């Protein structure tokens, strides 16, 4: 019977904390140097819309999505072993479903660029951010319930609530800003593509609100999964392999 102790499992959220910023900074830097996007707060997806930055963006986001999926599964099993007396089995099962959709959304965003397959890309973004935020709210509630039994850290509950609230407000401001930015762009724009949205184009301020909100939302969601570090320190993952011979 092989096992992976807590110190090994915390490498998952730690890896997420490392890969996330590397992905954001690298794809943004290459996109700006290649002249593919505006310098001031482009949409994250726009920094991964064209090669070569799209290759780096896609590879990193695929790895991050896989880490999120494994983290969702581990957190589900961890909570499932705690909630015998708290009546949270259904909610915990729902978070497993939401978390898997969130990870799937990240993979869709990584593999279907908005420059080529916009519908699938936006569907992935909805799964990643929309369902991801609902997942975070649900697990924040679960964290507070579990804290009554002193099974997790109180500060982690507060931090998760703060990150989830920040992500939710950013999600709303991103959508609202995008709506007004598009309306302003349609009325007047100098540049041919919104990838180079500038102050001389209509709806520029709303555009910056939307793009900045997306960056904040992304960092907040990744930060939420990083808060699993103290929880994963207290669990072991055991893999049991059994050999049988067909008769």
From TrEMBL:
Keyword Membrane carried by entry: yes
Cellular compartments annotated: Endomembrane system
Keywords: Membrane, Transmembrane, Transmembrane helix
Transmembrane segments: 7-31, 51-74, 94-113, 119-138, 159-181, 215-239
First-listed, main subcellular location of the protein, grouped into a coarse class: membrane
Residues of the CWH43-like N-terminal domain: 10-234
Keyword DNA-binding set for record: no
Top-level taxon of the source organism: Eukaryota
Membrane-topology annotation of the record: Multi-pass membrane protein
Cited Pfam families: Frag1
GO cellular component, one term: endomembrane system
Family: Belongs to the DRAM/TMEM150 family.
Protein name: Putative DNA damage-regulated autophagy modulator protein 1
């Amino acid at each position: 019977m092989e096992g992976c102790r807590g110190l090994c499992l915390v490498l998952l959220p730690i890896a997420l904390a490392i890969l996330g910023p590397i992905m954001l900074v690298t794809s943004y830097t290459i996109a700006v140097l290649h002249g593919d996007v505006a310098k001031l707060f482009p949409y994250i997806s726009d920094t991964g819309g064209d090669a070569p930055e799209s290759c780096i963006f896609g590879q990193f986001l695929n790895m991050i999505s896989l880490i999120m999926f494994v983290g969702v599964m581990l957190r589900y099993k961890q909570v499932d072993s705690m909630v015998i007396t708290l009546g949270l089995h259904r909610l915990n099962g729902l978070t497993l479903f939401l978390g898997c959709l969130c990870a799937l959304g990240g993979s869709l965003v990584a593999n279907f660029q908005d420059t080529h397959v916009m519908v699938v890309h936006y569907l992935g973004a909805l799964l990643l951010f929309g369902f991801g935020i609902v997942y975070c709210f649900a697990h924040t509630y679960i964290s507070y319930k579990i804290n009554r039994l002193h099974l997790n850290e109180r500060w982690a509950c507060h931090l998760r609530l703060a990150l989830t609230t920040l992500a939710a407000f950013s999600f709303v401001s991103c959508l609202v800003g995008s709506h007004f930015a598009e309306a302003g762009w349609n009325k007047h724009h100098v540049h041919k593509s919104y990838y180079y949205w500038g102050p001389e184009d209509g709806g520029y301020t709303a555009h910056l609100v939307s793009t900045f909100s997306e960056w904040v939302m992304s960092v907040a969601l990744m930060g939420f999964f990083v808060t699993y570090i103290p929880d994963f320190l207290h669990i072991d993952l055991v893999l049991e392999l059994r050999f049988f011979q067909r008769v």
